[in-house]
Amino acid sequence: MADKQISLPAKLINGGIAGLIGVTCVFPIDLAKTRLQNQQNGARLYTSMSDCLIKTIRSEGYFGMYRGAAVNLTLVTPEKAIKLAANDFFRHHLSKDGKLTLFKEMLAGCGAGTCQVIVTTPMEMLKIQLQDAGRLEITTALFQLLLMLKIQNKLMPETVAAGTVETKSPTAMQLTRDLLREKGIAGLYKGLGATLLRDVPFSIIYFPLFANLNNLGKRGIDGPAPFYVSFLSGCLAGSTAAVAVNPVDVIKTRLQSLNRGSTEDTYSGVTDCIRKIMRNEGPSAFLKGAYCRALVIAPLFGIAQVVYFLGVGEFILSFLPKKDN
């Protein structure tokens, strides 16, 4: 049986609503994931997700956990809409010639992952700078404090100046303007290769796994799966795919971070990043934030699939006046 066909406007509405609800619920965990992935051995401020969130609330307040949320909430609608609609489009066309095999499902996921990076890359680029700003501020403040304690009253004028520089968190608009002015549109697409390496395998794993798990809970051959089956299938498929591609997500996060602490490594590309992480932090560094990422992606895609399969978009469109033929 071919997949249920939904109109493009309904797909876009479903994807957008699912993204807005999901991001609002899990954004603090996503912030913790970014900060855990970005900290290197020389500057470990956080020991776990809970430690990161507690310290963030203490130093930046409750809304500090939502740094960068405006960027995500603005761009997650087209990002999720493109991802879900593209997968549905490719599945529909690949199933025209017969049964939708596992390979064709993976091919459809590959197409969806490739399409979404148009929005995902600049969204992640801006979000990471805003999310990591608090960690960098704390790192800078600690460095200044240690410097002042070390040299105490023997400070030279130039050292005082260097040790008392205040850091100010940038806004999304400031970051966008600076990147466009200095590097053009390419500045917003820094880390595009790493984003493709993360999102394409993620979609190849996620969409076929979700479809097959969801089919297990269908009522009869042609009946739809209950909403709770869609939710659990989305959670399980999302968390599995998230953990599988987490090493690439660590690389992407490091490459897209523009500002670093004075003792932290910089990277010229994917291979340079892999080499330095392996040499300085070991293989376990590629699993940094994996637990957080699974906790972010599981409900995010669970909610997305419930909204999609409940037909929220179709319900909203039903209130619009229909054109007479």
Automatic annotation (TrEMBL):
Biological classification of the source: Eukaryota, Metazoa, Chordata, Craniata, Vertebrata
Protein name in the entry: Mitochondrial glutamate carrier 1
Native source organism of the sequence: Lates calcarifer (Barramundi)
One GO-annotated biological process of the protein: malate-aspartate shuttle
Swiss-Prot/TrEMBL Solcar repeat ranges: 6-93, 100-216, 225-314
Catalytic activity line of the entry: L-glutamate(in) + H(+)(in) = L-glutamate(out) + H(+)(out)
Keyword Mitochondrion recorded: yes
Localization annotation: Mitochondrion inner membrane
Function: Mitochondrial glutamate/H(+) symporter. Responsible for the transport of glutamate from the cytosol into the mitochondrial matrix with the concomitant import of a proton. Plays a role in the control of glucose-stimulated insulin secretion.
Location, primary (coarse class): mitochondrion
InterPro entries for this protein: MCP, MCP_dom_sf, MCP_transmembrane, Mito_Solute_Carrier
GN (gene name): slc25a22a
